[in-house]
Amino acid sequence: MQGKWSKSLAFVFLAWACGPGPAAAAEGDKWTAARANMVRTIERHGRYVGSALQGRSLDERVLKVVGAVPRHLFVPRGLRHRAYADRPLPIGFGQTISQPFIVALMTHLAAVGRGDVILEVGTGSGYQAAVLAPLVRQVCTIEIIPGLAKNAARLFKRLALSNVKAKLGDGYYGWEACGPFDAILVTAAATHVPPPLVRQLKAGGRMIIPVGAPFATQQLVVVSKDENGRARTRQMLPVVFVPLTGGHK
Predict the structure, then answer these.
(1) Residue 27: its pLDDT value, please?
(2) Is the pLDDT of residue 20 over 60?
(3) Which residues are catalytic?
(4) Which domains does the chain have, with CATH numbers?
């Protein structure tokens, strides 16, 4: 099973990195090397936050995907030279693309599987959804800012991410028609865990969400829903995310 998954992943992302002719190949090689260096940085970062990983290493499946997804396509053209630095970058509309380590960590903490249906709240430029797509059956992603939603949808189509379903809307309320969800990843900070998202999480599922005041240090929280529908939370590490916006405020 692992071998089939690896071959499929390599085939999908080869088309992303390379194009026709020597110039395109050289460009692809440049980005491939940059991604490999980024993954090494992520692995080192992971060793410094052992408590969040409970003494384990980041999931190898997640690292392989992060090492293949062309992050430079998800940032503004003028920032592409910084696309593989392990840091957040502005993507317009007052929003950012998350730090690659945080994307890898949130994906790891969600413990996603091949048959899972995942909700992402806050599509942004689409990078987190693109990382999730090869790992799961379906990604349902919601973005409240029209310009970002439009740009991300265009990228999903360009990259043939057929298992990513995107819509414009207020992610605080989730996407009931697309659920229930095996995992939910929220990519903006909420002042509290949104009850509609807890309801749409399957028993046994996990939600990864930054919780805290806007523009301050927040806590990355794992919400686990047991078989009886009870939700338990665990704080993982301090983070800083842009605030979740929407009508609930």
Answers:
(1) 60
(2) no
(3) 98
(4) 2-239 (3.40.50.150)
